[in-house]
Amino acid sequence: MTFRNEDLPVLFHHTDQAAISRQRESTQATRAQLMLLVAAAAAAALPSGPKLGSMYLFGLLSVLAYAGVLAVGIRATRRRARPQWQLNRSAAEFIKSLAWRYAVHGAPFGSDVAGAEGAYRARLEAGLDELKKMGWEDPRGSGTVPEGGEITGAMHRLRGLNYQVRRETYVRDRLIEQRNWYQRKTEVSRRATALWSWTIVLLTCLALLFALIGAFGSGPAPKLTGLLSAAAAAGIAWNEVRRHHPLIEAHTLIEQDLAAMMVVMQTTITESQWPSSVYETERYVSPQHTDWLARHSS
Predict the structure, then answer these.
(1) Cβ distance 214 to 221 under 8 Å?
(2) Domain locations in the chain?
(3) How many angstroms separate the CA atoms of 101 and 116, rounded?
(4) In the chain, alpha helices (H)
(5) Which residue, among 102, 89, 88, 87, has the nearest Cα to 8 in the 3D structure?
(6) Torsion, Cα of 259, 260, 262, 266 (10° steps)
(7) What single-letter DSSP state applies at residue 104?
(8) Span 272-281, mean pLDDT?
(9) Nearest to 11 by CA among 142, 182, 105, 135
(10) What is the pLDDT of residue 79?
(11) Above 80 in pLDDT, residue 294?
(12) CA dist., res. 134 & res. 154, Å (int)
C-alpha cells in the first residue's frame, strides 16, 4: 500500500496551501522593502537630474522609494503574513504528523488503545485549540473546509493492515520521503548561501575600494560607498531572513537522525516498540524541533 499527501485530511491541504501563500506574501514584502531601500540609496547617490516643479527627479524618486518601504511595512503588519504563515505551517505539520501516527498505530494510537478514533479526534482538536489561542484561523469555522473529514478512507485502510505492511509503508512513504525532502532543502540552502556570501563579499570589497579612493579626496567615492554599503546590508539582511546557514545545520542533523531511525525500524524494532518509535520519528520532523536546532546550531 502507498500513503501519500493526497491521502491526508482536507484540513491539512487547506492549511498547507495557506502556509505557502502566507510565506510567499511575507517573503515578497521583505524583498520589496530591501529592494526599495537600495533603490532609494541609488537615487540619492545619483546627480540631481532634471527639475520637476520644485523638486529634482532623482530626489523625488528617493522620497518615493522610502515612502514605499513604509507602505509595504504597514501593509505586511496589518496582514499578519508572517505570523499566519508560521501558525498555518505548524497546524499543517501537526495534522500530518497526527494522521500518520493514527494510520500506522504510532503512539498514542497503538494497537492496544481502545477507541483510537475518538482519541485521535480529541487530540487533534486539543492541538488546534492551542493554535487558535495564538491567532490561527480555523477554516472549518468559516465553512471553507467541511466538518467531519479529519480521518480519510486511506487512513482507515492503512490502520487496518498488519504490522509488516504498516511498517513498510511508513518507512517508505513517510520516513524516506521526509529524509529526501531534507536533503533537497539542504542542497538548495547550500547554493543560496554560497551565492549570497560571494555577493556580499563583492559588494563589501567594492565599498572598501571606493572608500579608499574617497580617503584621498577624489571622485564620487562617498555616494558610491553609501550605495554599495546599503546593497551589502540588504544582502546580509536577506540572508538572515532566509536563515540558510542555520537551516543547513538543522536539516543535516535531522537527516542523520532519520537515517539512523530508518535502519533501526527495518532491523531491530519489534511490534511492541513500534508505537514509541513512530512517535520519536514524528518528533524529529516537527517544525518546533527544526526551529530549536536552527537556533542552537553553530
Answers:
(1) yes
(2) 1-161, 162-298
(3) 11
(4) 10-45, 57-79, 81-103, 116-133, 153-159, 163-170, 177-215, 221-242, 244-267, 274-284, 287-296
(5) 102
(6) 140
(7) T
(8) 95
(9) 142
(10) 92
(11) no
(12) 31
16 phi, psi to nearest 5 deg:
-65, -45
How many CA atoms lie less than 13 Å away from 267 in the CB half-sphere?
A: 6
Alpha-carbon torsion (224, 229, 232, 233), positive or negative: negative
The amino acid sitting at 116 is: A
Upstream peptide bond of 108 is cis (omega within 30 degrees of 0)? yes
Single-letter amino acid code for the residue at 274: W
**What pLDDT, on the 0 to 100 scale, is given for residue 221?**
63
- Taking residues 53-80, what's their average pLDDT? 91
| Best mean pLDDT range from 57-66, 88-97, 224-233 | 88-97
Spatial separation of the C-alpha atoms in residues 80 and 87, rounded to whole Å: 11
Q: 106, 278 in Cβ contact below 8 A?
A: yes
Task: Give 7-65 pLDDT, tens digit per residue.
Answer: 999 999 999 999 999 999 999 999 999 999 999 999 888 877 777 777 888 888 999 99
Tell whether the model's pLDDT for residue 5 goes beyond 70. yes
Give 2: exposed, middle or buried? Use CB within 10 Å, 0-12, 13-18, 19+: exposed
Closest CA to 151 of 185, 191, 121: 121
Query: Residue 104 has which C-alpha cell?
Result: 500506522
Which grid cell sits at 169?
Answer: 509503508
- Sorted by sequence, the CB contacts under 8 Å of residue 78 that are 6+ apart come out as none
Give me the mean pLDDT over the 148-172 stretch: 94
| Beta-carbon contacts of residue 60 (< 8 Å; ≥ 6 apart) | 52
Neighbouring CB atoms inside 10 A of 106's CB total 24
Interacting residues of 117 by C-beta distance below 8 A, sequence separation 6+: 102, 151
